[in-house]
Every structure is written in C-alpha cells, then in structure tokens.
Amino acid sequence: PYSFAITAQNSLGTSVEVLTKSIIPQAGWKTAPVDLTPDGRDIASTTFNGKPIIVFTDAPKGVLKIATWNGLRWKKTTIDGAGGSAGRTKNKIAGHISLCTSGTGTNQKLHIFYPDAINRDLRYALYDGKSFIFEVVDGNGPEIQNYEIADRVRTASDVSISNACAITPSGVSVFYRDESQGILLGANKRVNTTKWVYELIDGDRKTDDRSTGDVAFHLAAYVKKSTTHIIYDSVLVINQKREITSGEVRYASRTGVSPNSWSYKTLDKAENGVPVAGFDVAIGKERAGIRMVWIAASASSTPVPNQIRSTFVGNTEKISTANTDGFGTPGASITLENGELIFNCELRLCSMNLTKANNPIRLVSSTQTKEPGRGVFVTVDKKRFLLVAIDRRIAFLIA
Length: 399
Fold this sequence. Notes:
By secondary structure, this protein is mainly β. The chain contains no helices and 32 strands.
C-alpha cells in the first residue's frame, strides 16, 4: 500500500501535513491482438446466428462496420455511411449503437440502430446474415412535433443522442431521446407490418407518475418474455456552469406494446440523500434477477459523481451503494453483464463485480486516455474478452 503526504509552503512557513488514503497499485488487464480498425469509437457486440459479431464506427471515415468471426479471423463489411443504394446514407455515422436479435438458431435477424451525425436522425439496418435493409426510424419528419400532441407521428427533432432497442413477441421496439424537447420517445414495428408506430413515453407531464424532467440522456432496455424494462436519467436542475445539480433515475416497464400500458417509478432522487443521480445507466440479467445500475454523486461530492448504485426489478426500494474512492471519478459509458460492471474511472476503465458483498473494484486499463472509453463483452471460441474502444483504438482485453 502507498500513501502520499502533502504540505503547502509559503513565506509564512509550512502547513500541517495531510496524508492521502492508502492505495495498492494494480496491473491492468492484458491486451490481446485484434484487427478491426486503427481508429474506432462506438462499439456494440452480440451473438448472431451462433457467432460473435461486432458493430463499430470507423471514426475517420464516419462509416458503420460489422465484423463477424468465421473461426479464423474477423470478416469486416461496411454497413452504412459510405453512400450507395437501398437507403444507405453518405452522411457521417457517429454515436451510440444498439443491437437486438430476433428469431432462433441460425435463422436470426439482427436489428441495428444508430444515429446520423449530420441530419441527427435515428437510422435502422435489418440484417439477415446476407443483406441489409435500411430505414430512417425518426428525425426526418416535416416538423418538430410538440410534446403536448398526444397522437404521435414522425418528428423533425434531433434524435441522435441515445437509443436502446428491445425485441418482444409483438415485434421490434426502439426508445430514444428527443434532444429538441428533452423527452423520451419510442417507435415499434409489429410482426408482419411495415410501418413504425410512434409514442411519447416520458418527460411531458407530471400526471400518471410521469416526469417533466429533461430525460433520457442515457437509457438502457431489457426484455423478459413480453415485458420491457427501461432505465433512464432525468435532469432537474442545471447551474450557470452547465453542471447538473439535481437529477433522478427513472424506471418504466410494460407488458406488450400498448403506449398506455407503461408504469413508472423514480428509483433514485434527491430525497434519498443523493442530489445527482444518472450520469449513466445500465440494466442486465444475472442469477439474482434483473439488475439496474447508475452513477450518482453524494451530497459532499456534487456535482462530481463518486458512487455506483444499483437495485433489482421487483425490489427497487433496496438500493446498494459502492463508493469509487481510490479509483477516481466514475463516468459514462458503463456496461453490465452477469453482474460485472465496466465503467470509466478517471479516464481509465475499471470493473466492479456487483454480485460480491464487498463490490471489489479492479483496474481494466491503467493509463489515462484523452476521452472516456467504452467496453463491451464478447465471447470468441469459448473465451470471454472485453472489447474496448480507448482513444478511438479498438482492442481486446482479458483479465
């Protein structure tokens, strides 16, 4: 263990020594070679038709690519952003990617949602393993639809900030932030139909347990059978420095796809002693249930976050808190899989096993980066790796 003694010194003398907390140095995870792109930023991964796939952006070219493992190497194909036919765009692709799969076995279909960085639209690519079908989900409407209008149609709002998809027996759904009005929108396409049906989920009113906060800068979704679960943040107060001084974490769920069947709950709010919650959110299944995780700031650290907080669906009154002291400020983007959380810690990556009682934190990457990195898990040939985008370089790490 190491600690550091700090004193202040001037013409009047030397101050009393202040001793830092004890820290034990750790090595980061080992790097494994991967040939994807020398400059990538946004990544997502899943298993498709029994094989691992990776979808990522090539930052200099502004294109979206897919890589499929064929047992020997990664086969890379450009999805969108390079122009072409069948609904592709020439605009730059950059921003959050969400993936969902439908079907079973080797007859699956891959649903890819991603933003157009120029027009600020939400785009959609459907992949059957051989070819793609492209659509603009939302953002290319004739005008911005006011949040007070109940019957929802396609809007002209900026819908490029966040998105999360979900597959239910009824069809495919995607949830996304309307940046122009600070509300949470949704679109779903039912099985055997061709049109998107739109809805306004939250951020428009205080009745029916809804909120008027500036919502869904960060959101995540999870489906169990026919029930959809969404977790998202809600910004309430911003000071003159553009710092969030009050915020909440919200949870919504429904069975089916009816816009009127949502139920709402505020998971974390200022009354719980945490004035700012929701710097990023995640949701995922583990043995104990469906866990929801978010980053928060205590009263003493506001507006800088210093906590990882979590709870389970069905037991939301019980919130677990873990401090990140000794590892620096936590921040977006976070990834949750089987109770293991990957999060940014002082411009590095850290991991936390939330299934263990003392929530031990480990360094994943030991050097600080220029911007926050992102990590997602991928299993290749029965080996589990963490696929990371750090300083726009994509690499594999293994504990």
